[in-house]
Amino acid sequence: MSRAGVCASKSMAELAWSRERPSRLPDGLLRATARRQSVRNAPRELQRPVARHRAIFISDTHLGTRGCKAELLADFLARNSCETLFLVGDIVDGWRLRRRWFWPAAHNRVLEELLHKIDAGTRVIYVPGNHDEVLRSYCGRVIAGVELMEEAVHETADGRRLLILHGDRFDAVIAYAKWLAHLGDGAYTLALQLNEICHAIRRGMGLEYWSLSAYLKQKVKNALEYICRFESAVAREVKARGFDGVVCGHIHHAAIKTLEGVLYINDGDWVESCTALVEDMRGNLEILHWSSAAAARDTVTPASARDELADSVPA
After folding, report:
1. What's this model's pTM, rounded to 2 decimal places?
2. Which one of 151, 164, 178, 289 has the minimum C-beta count within 10 Å?
3. Is 156 domain-assigned?
């Protein structure tokens, strides 16, 4: 599809909101709109520092939910450029939009930043997850300049082959009891609502962002055991398929580690930790914690913030 075929931001969200797998794309996704031109011509902040990377990986943004930290995500996209951007699933939350429509201006800004990257020549690859599973019907197609794939392979600058997938198929609850996953999603939503109350109180006190839900996850034994089982299952699969490593999402737990003899990387999320994985021009991989970086930006240079706040692994 030509890059001229760009959808309005709400049309993209409506695709994820669909209850059934449509037989063809909605007309709104096939019509050229004024949105793309307005994004291209929109004024951007002058003197904004931009960090340049070879590749960026983000997942679990959950656009369409109140828990999405859209302002921080849009700020990250505006301040970081790359040759290839991987969207590793659960970018739009179709589960939640199916129940109730929620799409504020901040979520539009995220889409506009993505469109700006496409206009600037960034290759954007979208690997859908379970919350945006409706898009799996279109894997193998290019929509609005975004390549949709069931899974992807990325070769780092130093020659390592990484499998890119969301990871939900390694989740036994998703695979065998989807109704339980929806029930758990409701409980998780409640935790995120408490998280927002905590964040509002801290913000009023002049304190930086801190995730209550992420803290609770770290303290609950069953949650830690679930994370370990998930990580091991993913690593075994990747090793069996002959890859050097994997980049995934799904469990909202950013990590870089060696498991089963392969490199396991989870790029985290944008409802709790606000993290992304980046690769530099030499193949070094690191996790950026953007909530901390945003808070520190006024007191340290962007390069210093990245060095201090990133978990890195050498090439």
Report:
1. 0.71
2. 178
3. yes
Domain tally, the chain: 1
Q: In sequence order, what are the residues at sequence separation of 6 or more whose Cβ sits closer than 8 angstroms to the Cβ of residue 66?
A: 102, 192, 193, 196
Range of the structural domain that residue 181 is part of: 9-21+28-36+49-313
pLDDT tens digit sequence for 133-179 = 999 999 999 999 999 999 999 999 999 999 999 999 988 544 443 43
Using DSSP's 3-state secondary structure scheme, residue 197 falls into helix
pLDDT for 24-80, tens place per residue? 444 433 343 444 554 445 455 445 689 999 999 999 999 999 999 999 999 999 999
Picking from 61, 82, 114, 59, the residue whose alpha carbon sits closest to that of residue 246 is: 59
Domain assignment present for 1: no
Residue 250 lies in a domain: yes
270: domain CATH number is 3.60.21.10
* Stretch (H or E) spanning 195: helix 178-204
C-alpha dist (Å) from residue 47 to 15, 50, 72, 113, 120? 36, 9, 19, 17, 18
